[in-house]
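INFO batch 0412 | record 1 of 1 | parsing
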Amino acid sequence: MKNLTRTLLTLLSAVVLLSLTTSMNAQDKKDIEKVLAPFPKAEEGMVRHVIELKKKSDESLYKVEIIPGKEMSVDCNIHRLMGTLTEKDLEGWGYTYYEFKSNGQTTSTMMACNKPNEDKFVSGETLIVRYNSKLPIVIYAPKGFEVKYRIWKADKEKNSVEK
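INFO prediction complete | emitting tokens
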């Protein structure tokens, strides 16, 4: 009898926890949809990528590097995706979003390679922007492209030396 009661309580707890998690996820989804409402829908052939940042105690110490690119089969040379990453203003809102345009062509060094091609992430032009957890970072990129990002943190201030 005790085992049955314990099992029923565990099952009930799991159901309550699952329902709370599901409702929180639904609420989070509604919140992000609200925040993204002013941003334009992705044009045909483009995809909207969204970076949501976690709140930090002193966000002035952080920066975000936006890294658009594509997984490609490449040789041993150093490859770079050709394209432009442009900052755009969302008129009437004072928000910024970014647009990456590329036709998928790459540039590379010209070393002789004796290894087979490998699948690697080939990045394009990157951009470092301020860290602001209150707004998402919205980037539009062509279908088939990815947008990765890197968080940079400032070190403690150091004094220069007079010479």
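INFO post-check: The longest strand covers residues 62-74.
INFO record closed
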